[in-house]
Backbone:
């Protein structure tokens, strides 16, 4: 069975966000990580491989060479090979078309992504890729197990609850905790990762549908009003003012 | 020109998110159409008052071909939708098949094609320009107040059946039983590790009941299993933007703030005056939650 794990490389969750004068994300002093949701996806793929050594895991990222150390980390965690589509991830539509084009050329049974990338948060890449490829997509998926090499059992959160589903492969899944426990690479994994293949692929052209004008930081909050814990009237009045 | 709004219902009432989408649609286009899978006459007959001129009733939001036909036949180029997963999936299909641009986490739409979106989980905004004649907008909640309209909506039943899908089978469905869903609540009462243990959540639930609010929690709390995972709000959990957000015994780590910072009013209760959450708050009470929360409940009567 061939599993593809698509990962984003994003600023650490504690990062302070700022932009350069030419409207780019300011990467200075920023620690980049594999997106937390994709980290769950990769961890689950590796867990499945631990139970069935015939599973082959490929890692895919759309990004520049600065992401290679993170892809090596993914290989150290347990992926067998990595591919990097050599471009900035311009927008969801661009990333989805590039992922779809890659999947079209390399067949996979199961394609795992994160629920969303935590930088631009569109939460659309899995759905868009699924639509381009006509592959059934589920998101967010909190449980995944293989039934046989043709179908899986998953649980997904819906707008009103949780569904347990038996689904035929191929599938695209947007993963979320508690699908797996995050994995930290061990020394053997790190040594092995050095000799694993990391291929660089040139991107396909995708017409940008929306043009970026600029980035801004949200307006500053007004000064906080402190309320005395022994005199809560102000708070109660405020709540009543809001019809509560 | 006309705009189409995807309508979701909460217990037979149109959701606030869909009402807000209709209010925005009325600012952008003269004719506002709604799309729903709810065929209950009683529920849909009053939708004119929310700003709809026509309501298309389909059997299922998974019935893509029927929806595409509604879009094509009615010359629809503008689509506005709440950001639920069902609608995100549907919007993605429309975007790729009909070549409509798509904008997620939308905060503001202007008539000249300018769109503002929330990015980095609310830590920044992107401002985009759309020079196409079409667009799908996935809206953040509470970016406008919904308005009432004096319209009468025609109801059009779209005649088609969803084709049987054999690629998957639903084995089991569990519905989360909560009176108010976290996504839809105007008021959210959220608590963190400051509450010391799951046995202390009664007062949080009591306050929530008083204020008709949903309950939420921080990541450490759901990780420890004190509260269910679906209550976790923050960067890697649910992102919410209620009208009022109570943060009780939550220090305000940057990852938590990211998920809640677009709330209209933030009220922080914490016994540590240095808690970073106070920097993001509109109102702050420095004090012991076990003392302050019961006092608030009492004062509310």
Residues:
């Amino acid at each position: 069975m061939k599993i593809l794990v698509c990962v984003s490389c994003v600023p650490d969750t504690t990062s302070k966000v700022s932009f350069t004068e030419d409207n780019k994300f300011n990467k200075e002093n920023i620690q980049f990580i594999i997106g937390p949701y994709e980290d769950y996806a990769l961890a689950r793929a590796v867990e499945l491989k631990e139970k069935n050594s015939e599973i082959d895991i490929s890692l895919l990222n759309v990004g520049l060479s600065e992401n290679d150390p993170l892809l090596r980390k993914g290989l150290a965690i347990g992926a067998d090979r990595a591919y990097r589509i050599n471009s900035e991830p311009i927008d969801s539509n661009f990333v989805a078309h590039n992922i779809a084009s890659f999947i079209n050329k390399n067949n996979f049974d199961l394609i795992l992504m994160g629920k969303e990338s935590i930088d631009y948060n569109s939460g659309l890449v899995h759905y868009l890729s699924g639509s381009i490829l006509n592959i059934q997509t589920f998101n967010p998926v909190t449980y995944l197990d293989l039934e046989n090499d043709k179908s899986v059992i998953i649980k997904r959160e819906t707008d009103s609850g949780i569904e347990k589903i038996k689904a035929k492969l191929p599938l695209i899944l947007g993963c979320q905790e508690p699908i797996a426990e995050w994995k930290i690479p061990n020394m053997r994994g790190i040594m092995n990762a050095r000799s694993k293949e990391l291929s660089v692929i040139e991107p396909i052209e995708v017409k940008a549908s929306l043009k970026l004008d600029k980035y801004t930081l949200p307006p500053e909050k007004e000064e906080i009003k402190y309320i005395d814990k022994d005199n809560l009237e102000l708070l109660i009045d405020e709540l009543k003012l809001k019809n509560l | 020109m006309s705009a189409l709004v995807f309508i979701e219902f909460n217990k037979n009432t149109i959701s606030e998110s869909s009402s807000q989408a209709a209010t925005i649609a009325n600012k952008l286009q003269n004719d506002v159409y709604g799309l729903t899978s709810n065929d209950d006459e009683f529920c849909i007959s009053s939708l004119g008052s929310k700003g709809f001129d026509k309501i298309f009733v389909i059997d299922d939001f998974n019935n893509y071909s029927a929806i595409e036909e509604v879009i094509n036949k009615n010359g629809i180029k503008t689509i506005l939708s709440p950001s639920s997963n069902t609608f995100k999936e549907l919007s993605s299909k429309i975007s790729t098949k009909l070549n409509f641009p798509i904008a997620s986490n939308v905060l503001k739409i202007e008539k000249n094609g300018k769109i503002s979106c929330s990015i980095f989980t609310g830590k920044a905004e992107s401002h985009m320009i759309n020079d196409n004649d079409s667009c799908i907008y996935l809206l953040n909640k509470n970016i406008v107040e919904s308005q009432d309209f004096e319209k009468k909506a025609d109801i059009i039943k779209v005649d088609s059946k969803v084709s049987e899908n054999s690629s998957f089978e639903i084995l089991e469905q569990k519905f989360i039983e909560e009176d108010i869903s976290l996504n839809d609540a105007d008021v959210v009462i959220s608590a963190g590790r400051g509450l010391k243990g799951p046995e202390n959540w009664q007062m949080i639930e009591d306050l929530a009941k008083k204020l008709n609010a949903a309950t939420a929690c921080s990541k450490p709390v759901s990780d420890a299993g004190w509260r269910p995972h679906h209550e976790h709000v923050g960067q890697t959990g649910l992102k919410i933007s209620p009208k009022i957000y109570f943060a009780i015994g939550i220090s305000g780590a940057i990852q938590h703030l990211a998920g809640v910072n677009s709330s209209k009013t933030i009220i922080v209760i914490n016994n540590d005056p240095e808690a970073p959450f106070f920097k993001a708050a509109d109102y702050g009470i420095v004090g012991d939650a076990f003392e302050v929360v019961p006092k608030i409940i009492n004062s509310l009567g």
